Amino acid sequence: MTQSRSRLVRLLTSPILLLVLFSCAFVGITVPDNARLSPFDEYVYLDYLAKVPSQVFVHTGEETGSVAREAIACRGIVNYGTYGDSCGSSSYSSDDLYPYDGKTGADIYTPGYFAATWALAQPLVAAGVGLLDAGRLVGMLWLSLGTTLLFTLMRMLRVATPVALGLSLAVIATPAVFWSATYISTDAPVLAFASALGIVGVASARRRLPLLLLPVLSVVAVLFKVQNLAAVGIVCAALFLYRIVLAFRVDPDSPGTTFGHRLGRVLTDPAIWISIFTVALAAAAQVAWLAFRTQEALRGSDGAIVDHVQKELSTGALFTEAFRFLFAVGAGGTSPTVIGPIVLACLSALAVAAMLGTVLKPRGIPASAVVIAGVTLGAALLMGPALSLATSMVAGYYVPLPARYGIVLLPAFVVCIGLFVNSVGKRGGVVIGCLGAACALLAVLG
Questions:
Q1: Residue 250: per-residue pLDDT
Q2: pLDDT confidence bin for 407, thresholds 50/70/90
Q3: Are the C-beta atoms of 52 and 121 separated by less than 8 Å?
Q4: 410-424 vs 139-156: helix axis angle to the nearest 10?
Q5: Cβ–Cβ under 8 Å, residues 429 and 182
Q6: Gap between the Cα atoms of 128 and 227, Å rounded
Q7: What is the pLDDT of residues 332-359, one digit of tens each?
């Protein structure tokens, strides 16, 4: 009897179970309160979701359908109100009354996120839940995967359990998670993909998983969301540098090892070559999708004008974009709760302090932690300019990047915090765990 009770207690206090419960509670309680559509393109995302069973993907220049138009006409958009024909109209055909003149703005995305979300939403739809709310509720799965995989990644890197749990719980309270997990959003799976890539990268560095799993997962991640390329870059750069560090580390048992011998280790290390191959393959996958998208565009119909703020890319703009995400980890527009901005500020400050502290004073800190901190800091500074340059090259103009794109960096930032806490001592672990739980609870309660 005592043994059974002990097992039950361990189960109920399992970090994974707690993360799943908090994630599901946050999404399940919040979604019914989201009466209006998210201003972050949920209107066109709903249209894409509704068209999955009939056409799989949407075409450039395609008009939005009645499902999305009825939603925006009847429910409206947060901070903007309703658009289009009157709610309850027999036909929602007045194209010029809808955003983008009635055209889709989601054609840049592959059907990956939408097909997966549509399939997962079907049991709820069969139970009588509308497609919009059913798709939003699938966020319970995306967020649960994201928080549990993030916790698993930190534990693989030997971050203390209370610290890993507290930080994973705190993530739930960030504004980025609110907008991505409780609405239909292509950002919903980003936390899970970025964390999963980290797990595979760590396992690859330790030779515990087949190396080919990294490029396969990377291609899938980038085809779900192009910003996931930043997570691929972080993982591959960390794997690349870590294996080089190991190759050139002085071995006390082999003091006579020459530079040429160590260089030979680098050149023959499959993990180093697979990290280079992975980035190239992931980028090629996105290029292939864009080529397919162009080929499938509707003839005689221009694509939607999504970016109304079009600027010339300057040196000053690149400098601004370099710091776009560094101090805004977990940002994502306004926060519906008081705790959101507090968590955002604390995580940002802790992440920057952790990265700088690790890189500037690496003595006594494991090489893996130094590499991860250095690569993450570099990625945070390069992601903004890289996206701006890519946009300028493809579209011919520059658009200031929204801070919510930085959600792809959130797992790496949180990992850096956890590793830094490990290096300075574990006395604050219980405090971090309690604070993280409190933040998640306040987010759930609203």
A1: 56
A2: very high
A3: no
A4: 30
A5: no
A6: 34
A7: 877 777 899 999 999 999 999 999 999 9
- Give me the phi and psi of 311, to 5 degrees please: -125, 170
What amino acid occupies position 193?
Answer: F
Q: List 37's β-bridge partners, or say none.
A: 77
Q: Which of 195, 172, 173, 169 is nearest to 433 (CA)?
A: 169
Q: How far apart are CA 406 and CA 58, in angstroms?
A: 26
Kindly indicate the confidence band of residue 265, based on its pLDDT and cuts at 50, 70 and 90. confident
Residues sharing a CB contact under 8 Å with residue 81, sequence separation 6 or more, in sequence order:
none
Distance, in Å, from the CA atom of 192 to the CA atom of 111, rounded to the nearest integer, reads: 18
Note the residue count of the chain: 446
Neighbours of 211 (CB within 10 A): 18
Would you state the pLDDT for residue 226? 92
Average pLDDT over residues 113-138: 97
Task: Determine contact, residues 156/113, Cβ cutoff 8 Å.
Answer: no
| Distance in angstroms (rounded) separating the CA atoms of residues 277 and 303 | 33
**The two structure tokens encoding residue 170:** 């705190």
- Structure tokens of 216? 């396969």
12: number of Cβ within 10 Å: 10
Given the structure tokens 């056409």, which residue do they identify? Answer: 55
Q: 193 is written with which tokens?
A: 């993909």
Q: What percent of the chain has pLDDT over 70?
A: 91
CA–CA separation, 426 vs 432, rounded Å? 10
- 133 near 93, Cβ under 8 Å? no
State pTM to two decimals: 0.92
Number of Cα atoms under 13 Å in the Cβ half of residue 247: 21
Q: Please give the pLDDT value at position 257.
A: 64
Intra-chain end-to-end CA distance of the chain, in Å? 39
Domain boundaries, the chain: 17-62+103-445
Name the percent of the chain lying above pLDDT 90.
67
CA distance 12 to 125: 30
Residue 360 CB burial class (10 angstroms; 0-12, 13-18, ≥19): exposed
Taking the C-alpha atoms of residue 338 and residue 367, their distance in angstroms, rounded to an integer, is 38
Residue 8 pLDDT > 60: no
Is 336 within 8 Å of 446 (Cβ atoms)?
A: yes
Quote the pLDDT of residue 189.
97
